[in-house]
Amino acid sequence: MRRRPAGGRALITGGQASLALWFALPLVPVALWALASRWNDSQVLPEEWGPAGAGSALADGAAASFATSLALGLTTAALATPAGAMAAYALAFGRLRGERAAALLLLAPVFVPPFVIVMGVNVAFLWLRVPPAVALALVLMVTAIPYTTFVMRAALASYDIGAEEAARTLGASPRGVLRRIRIPMLAGGLAASAFLAFLVGWSDYVLTLLIGGGQLVTVPMRVAAAASGTGNHALVAALSVAAVAPPLLLLLVINRLSVPRTSRPATDADARERADTELTGASA
Given this model, what pLDDT does residue 31 score? Predict the structure, then answer.
């Protein structure tokens, strides 16, 4: 295995640090305001520290909005991730006649402005008396499917379909192939797809406002309302931290889980042993 030159490693490390600083630096004033009770514009740091912003946010109903956003994000991830994975698998290995048409159809929610479709769909939901929470979950799932589908399609580009065929030859059931071969080999792509789908449900504003009809109030809606109407910087900062924290923590967890547990490079013998183990388990 070839090692990168020391200068190349330093350049990559410096680039990563600069990119992290670029994204983290704008969050510093927000974090300081969330911990401040009073901060004069002429002062570099807050004059008084305290949980005034968090207290105002809780009094304003931020806890319920946080739970609503979390439920929407998790529901969107739970619905859109398997749907996108199945669509990507069909596009990659299904030998569809209208593959291009299917791909364009899956991308339609990205091309078309969401409110254009939602205005008509919402009328149908009201006529069918679909609860707003159910209707919003369905629309967010459709919105997230393009991202999950094409992330999974990229993951399937390096997927070895021969492992599934070998497992079936050994007598593995479809469920065994899915559980012991496909899901473990595509775990990274599935995690990335679920993260993007969670972001769609967590951060949506327009669709939630139109379909929820004021009954579903999420964290982004709280942030927008506080920023445009209250003038309370501590409240806006506390709500903004609540909006940023869950996706950031989820990203850190996914990144942590994707790091190999050992730094020892895998050999051909290790790869063959792992493949034999997976095939034996799938055929059981």
Answer: 79
